[in-house]
Automatic annotation (TrEMBL):
InterPro entries documented for this protein: Dgk1-like
TM segment ranges: 5-22, 28-45, 66-94, 125-144, 150-168, 188-215
Protein name (Swiss-Prot/TrEMBL): Phosphatidate cytidylyltransferase
Domain of life: Archaea
Protein's organism: Candidatus Marsarchaeota G2 archaeon OSP_D
Record's keyword terms, sorted: Membrane, Transmembrane, Transmembrane helix
One Gene Ontology molecular-function label: ATP-dependent diacylglycerol kinase activity
Amino acid sequence: MDREAAGITLIALTLCTVSWFFERYVAAISFIVALAVLFGYRGLLLKPRDAKLTVARKLPHVGGGLIVSGLLLAGWRWLAIGLTSAATFGYLYLILNHSSNRGSGVLSNLALQFGLIMENGGKPVYLSSTFYAFSALALLLLLYYPKPAIGGILTLTVSDTVAAVVGLHGKVKIPRLGKTVEGSAAMFVSSALILMAIGVPFYIAGIVALCATIIEMLPLPVDDNFLIPLIVGILLEALII
């Protein structure tokens, strides 16, 4: 096992063990660390626009969302928090390792292939959207459980990915928004279906899916990777009695 893999494995095991006893504290610390990285590494963080990387960089999000949601459904909230926190600290570890010119391990190479780390003029740049997502998921796991958290996580990781993939092939552009009708429709339909699949009544699922679609569609000042899961979680908590 190379240095990077060993380091991140140790981080994951430590955080999962601590989460067994102090899950809320671990979630809170993960949220704070993600926000701190967003501010501390602002000069090195970006939101890539390269369409060729869209599918690749979304695949880890889908896999992570399904794993965390499955753990919540199984009642293993502590492990969901531990793995989410491990992903936050693990990505920070990759940033620090890569920035110090030691990023030649297996995980750094995978991150480069998936567009989670990119080179710009010989300098590494990283995804701000990744830490927005990590901070939102940590906050969701801290505040809501289980249906609002699961709904928020899956809407971000699965529905947003479906919208991005469909949108790449969309033909009908929405004026001034840079989105396609096909991508937004895919976001709405997939969100509604996912929410109904976890037991949300169809009319509530439709309302929440519409709100998530509008957030994804509009050029808001706050990253949609942060807003989508939180708004979905808040709406589900408020509407499901």
